[in-house]
Give the backbone structure.
Amino acid sequence: MASKVNNWQEFQAVILAGGNGNGLDSLTNQIPKPMLPVGNIPMIEYSLRLLDKHGFQEVHVIAQEKMSKAIMELLDDQLTAPGHPPLRIKIDLTTIPDDSDMGTADALRLLADKIYTDFIVLSCDVITNLQLFRLFDVHRVNNATVTMTFSEPSSTPENTGYIDRDVVGIDPKSKRVVLLTTEADIDGDNLPVKTSLMNEYPRIQVRKNLNDAHIYVFAKWVMDVLKEKKKISAIKRDLVPYLVRKQFATPVAGMPGKTREPMSMAPADPNADLFSKNARTPRSSQVLKCYSIMVTPEDTFCIRANTTQAYKDVNRQIASYMASLIFKDPDSVYANVNSGCSAARNAQIGSDSLVSTGTQIGSRCSVKRSIIGKHCSLSEKVKITNSVIMDHVTIAGECVIENSIICQSAHILAKCSLKHCLVGVSHSVPEGTKSKDEALGFDYM
């Protein structure tokens, strides 16, 4: 096991946490996206723990300036978090201006002088227990330029976090990605495919229902492409489709990004030390290649919490997966109800829910498929279903909350009924309020 972990140091790691979370409605106006709680843990912590469990000793995090202090404090907080193993991974933080409209590829350029080998890139909103060696093995064996992760759609309508509809063409035998475009770029039912491509790959599996998990492994020299091609702004929209197209470009002299010559990230010397900064260098004798792995709901938990609905969905499902997301030992057990929680004997807390420390749950309360944060107070006869209740929330008696998100320090007075609602930070909902599909306590919507 030790040798496998050490070998993974041939890859560096990058977490992208600089986005504004536009798909999360008003939530990110009050709470920065990386710090939105998922299962009572800041969203970005799942990416950090995924890398930490796989032996990464350092990660480059790109975040807005306003997030720098909170992210660095996260490590200190988790050193003493009850029931959680400590985070040992070192964070190298690169900040971008809070009002920046940088795309993900623009942000990645900021690391040009820090990337010296192949590297994995994750979005901070990905919540997954993916075994990363699957991705690394495909990338390594195929000398890939990029290896991307696709997830099969869930059999239930819960996984709704993906907005863009991609059209992906994959060779079913090799799993090579030979076509990548968007549905909007297709004219009717006509899918333009080059004859040369069809000759080489006569059987292409074309899918329109795959979810891009936003987990990629890139060859080191892709950073050279980014430095040369300034118009490439976003990884998903610009960079990856560019690399897929360039696989079958006519070879001419030069380097990727400046000319059309396909190149490889294979070591010039097959006996080169994988830990050397010069171990993986482009070689023009092999083609540029794009590959993928596929994960299914049956073998891997993988959701992007990039929309309000997806944020609700991942919180509704996550109680069943916390052990695999938090612990390295597959036999570990996660306590869904923290020992510091106080609940009346006749309160009902479903095994599909999570309740954090310091929370008090009153008589005849019911909590189903929901997340209850730290130091909350639920008075008697409160019913909560499919909802997220953040830290320090008070809910008075006989309230009914369904499919809603209640932000920290909010106060819900007695006999309220909230369905499909968002309640802002520190907002007070008057007694007897009946609301559906509303945002309460937000300046913008």
